[in-house]
Amino acid sequence: MTWGFVEGQIYNRRADIHARFRGQMQGGIITPAGAGMPIIIITGEEGHTHGYADRLREDGVFEYFGEGQRGDMQMVRGNAAIQSHASEGRDLLLFRKQRQGLRYLGQFIFEASHTELAPDTEGLMRNAIVFELRPFEAVAGVPDDVTADDTAGDLADLRRRAIEASRSIPAQGQRLATVYERSKLICSYVFARANGTCEFCSSPAPFLRANGVPYLEAHHIHKLTDGGPDDPRTMIGVCPNCHRRAHSAADRDQVNADMLQAVQTREA
Ligand SMILES: [Zn+2]
Ligand SMILES: [Zn+2]
Asked: Ligand 1 (ion): which residues have CB within 5 A?
């Protein structure tokens, strides 16, 4: 979920983040106390100015340097919070520090991490943790390789596997394939549940994929309670129109609330 932040808009750290969530006033990783609170990370924050910089990879993955001023970075505190955000049901929100304030870049998912040599605050080379973060909907949204076999079978069984997949987090070193596999399991269930019909407007899928599977998209419903980044009980299989409406329409808050209602009815 987006917690009310709109991609591309500028926010004020004190008024829009600390007044609302509290959390550390210093540094690039903010981990507000309390179950289900989001983890907020800021790229371009101090400490990221010692000769290395976060970067966007060509494949869409954002590489974010962890925290730790001197010596090798350790997978503790803020760094550990990023690594375990999915299993803790905490959203990961990324902002970029600019002169005007913090620009919201969107919700991301921890995919993997690696270490790289990079200078610490004293200019000494050490092992830095680099988090590989993928934009949320790129992981959770529209897998092209879901086949008819993936969505066939017992719905309760697909559901159980999807929920298991949503709870497992990729271990350090695990790569893209694993994340896609998890996402695919979850989407397979959502598409099986939808059964070829948009779960919001009830229209049939607008066309078939090349492999014969009705084309729907999986939308993660924006809401203000926890549930984990890609829990199938907060995802809805929708037609492309409804999907764009959930993201871009003037009434998108209401649309997402109605979508949650629709999914809960189906899940009950
Ligand atoms: Zn629809
Ligand atoms: Zn969506």
From this structure: 198, 200-201, 239, 242
